[in-house]
């Protein structure tokens, strides 16, 4: 038997023939004498199955699978695998893993509607494939299907699709292994598949670990690490913020009574200086390191103030809005702050460019506290990383001295999509984005209330201990 014939037989045996380049018009086998054809069973949820033959040159009894769809404005792509929709990607958002539910075909035999579930939020998702020529608005390429994706939270996405079996690893594995010819290889492949909890997620390999960071060591000392060089910046401090060039560090230090100082440590000189003193805290570098924003208490109200990095004596109010927490810069001319009711995107004119109720961000799952942290994704201002305490501690989760479990979640401001990302068996605080936006670093509480820093990719994979220090701040 030729290699080509063998491959075709494997495709038929696996039921992988798809509409488009791989479409095959099969005939139903005749019943043997004395036998009554068995009734056709209903399609199992999540398993696209063959449907009765429909006449016509472009019609097939097979549901389209192994399809890659994409669209522009906004940019998105979708993988429709052997069981249905399995993954939705959008530019500068983590991938959404989908759980197929069922599929239906219309009477014409040229339109298929797949239903699925967003595993992160439980939201309903439908994918409609229409066998009709489709053109990419950004290129001259022609595609087999018109595709419409409806996500209950994100909205409607329109684009094109084409059968692309070669882009599905599980398809390649199945067709490279013949259990009769190589049973050991087939068994090993099955074991590897069992190890993979999220086969729809591809490993993240192109990421940039931070090289310049600040953290607190086990004794509470403030450490600035630049590559292999580590220097003690201060014997004590908190609220660390490293400049984007990695050369300077802001930190808050307590003084007598309620007063504090925001200090600056310069790696070039190895010296610290106090910048602003009094009822102040939470210093943050602007994106170009030219300015510093901080909170100052004026007439018993906390407000955002700023000053040029080289002229702290010229500090002035950035906004009259009363807030309780500052979460950093969202652009060279705006910052994110909050009180106990709302999150505010404050502009250069002092006014709120956008206001979002914290109840929308936290939902009922998390408590609202002034000590929480919100961090804007470095490439996507719509995506927030929020550190907060659970309202009800998950079963088996560790708790701190207050009996609370802290965690972190992702929140999309426009779609209001919230995904708890931290493992529920973990106590986590001070979650921060890496500069490439693919990694999250957070303080993890271990046995005996000890603390260390752990890394997690933004898709929930790659959980790994990073270092012994806590309260990590990333420069670059």
Number of helices: 4
* Structural domain tally: 2
Give me the count of strands.
32
CA(first)-CA(last) distance: 58 Å
Computed over alpha carbons, the radius of gyration is 28 Å
Spatial arrangement of strands, main beta sheet: 1-2-3-4-5-6-7-8
CATH architecture of the largest domain: 6 Propeller
Give the percentage of residues in beta strands.
Answer: 35-45%
Overall shape: it is elongated
What is the CATH superfamily classification of the largest domain?
TolB, C-terminal domain
Structural class by secondary-structure content: mainly beta
Top CATH class of the largest domain: Mainly Beta
Low-confidence runs (pLDDT<50, min 5 residues)? 1-47, 49-57, 177-196
Average pLDDT works out at 86
Would you mind describing this structure in some detail?
- This protein has 476 residues and is mainly beta.
- Helices cover 8% and strands 44% of the residues.
- It is built from 4 helices and 32 strands.
- The longest helix has 13 residues, at 183-195.
- The protein is elongated, with a radius of gyration of 28 Å.
- Residues 1-47, 49-57 and 177-196 have low confidence and may be disordered.
Summarize the structure.
The protein is mainly beta.
Spell out the blueprint of helices and strands.
Layout: H1 3-14, E1 67-71, E2 76-81, E3 84-90, E4 96-105, E5 111-118, E6 124-135, E7 142-151, E8 155-163, H2 169-176, H3 183-195, E9 212-216, E10 222-226, E11 229-234, E12 238-242, E13 248-254, E14 260-266, E15 271-278, E16 280-285, E17 291-298, E18 301-308, E19 316-317, E20 325-331, E21 334-338, E22 342-346, E23 352-357, H4 358-362, E24 373-376, E25 383-389, E26 406-412, E27 417-420, E28 428-433, E29 439-445, E30 451-457, E31 464-467, E32 470-474
């Amino acid at each position: 038997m030729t290699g080509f014939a063998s491959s075709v037989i494997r495709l038929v045996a696996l039921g992988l023939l798809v509409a488009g380049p791989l479409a095959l018009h099969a005939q139903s086998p005749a019943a043997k004498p004395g036998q009554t054809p068995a009734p056709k069973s209903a399609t199992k949820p999540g398993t696209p199955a063959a449907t009765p033959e429909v006449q016509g040159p472009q019609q097939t009894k097979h549901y389209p699978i192994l399809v890659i769809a994409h669209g522009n404005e906004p940019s998105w792509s979708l993988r429709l695998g052997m069981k249905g929709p399995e993954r939705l990607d959008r530019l500068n958002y983590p991938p959404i893993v989908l759980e197929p539910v069922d599929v239906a075909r219309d009477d014409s035999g040229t339109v298929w509607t797949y239903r699925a579930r967003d595993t992160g939020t439980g939201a309903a998702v439908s994918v409609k494939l229409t066998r009709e020529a489709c053109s990419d608005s950004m290129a001259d390429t022609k595609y087999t299907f018109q595709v419409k994706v409806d996500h209950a939270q994100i909205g409607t996405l329109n684009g094109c699709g084409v059968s692309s079996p070669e882009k599905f690893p599980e398809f390649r594995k199945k067709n490279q292994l013949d259990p009769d010819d190589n049973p050991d290889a087939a068994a090993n492949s099955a074991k590897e598949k069992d190890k993979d909890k999220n086969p729809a997620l591809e490993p993240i390999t192109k990421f940039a670990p931070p090289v310049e960071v600040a953290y607190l060591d086990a004794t509470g000392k403030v450490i600035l690490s630049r590559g292999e060089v580590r220097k003690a910046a201060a014997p004590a401090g908190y609220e660390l913020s490293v400049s984007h060039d990695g050369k300077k560090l802001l930190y808050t230090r307590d003084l007598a009574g309620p007063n504090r100082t925001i200090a600056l440590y310069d790696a070039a000189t190895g010296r610290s200086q106090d910048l602003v003193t009094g009822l102040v805290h939470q210093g943050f570098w602007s994106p170009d390191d030219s300015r510093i924003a901080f909170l100052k208490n004026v007439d018993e109200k906390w407000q955002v103030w700023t000053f040029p990095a080289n002229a702290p004596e010229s500090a002035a109010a950035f906004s009259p809005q009363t807030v309780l927490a500052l979460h950093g810069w969202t652009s060279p001319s705006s910052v994110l702050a909050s009180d106990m009711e709302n999150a505010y995107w404050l502009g250069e004119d002092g006014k709120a460019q956008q206001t979002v109720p914290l109840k929308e961000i936290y939902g009922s799952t998390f408590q609202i506290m002034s000590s929480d942290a919100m961090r804007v994704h470095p490439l996507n201002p719509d995506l927030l990383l929020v550190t907060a305490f659970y309202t009800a501690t998950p079963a088996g989760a560790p708790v701190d001295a207050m009996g609370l479990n802290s965690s972190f979640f992702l929140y999309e401001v426009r779609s209001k999509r919230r995904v708890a990302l931290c493992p529920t068996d973990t106590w986590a605080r001070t979650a921060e984005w890496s500069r490439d936006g693919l990694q999250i670093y957070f303080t993890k509480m271990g046995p005996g209330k000890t603390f260390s820093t752990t890394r997690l990719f933004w898709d929930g994979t790659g959980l790994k201990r990073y270092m012994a220090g806590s309260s990590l701040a990333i420069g670059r």
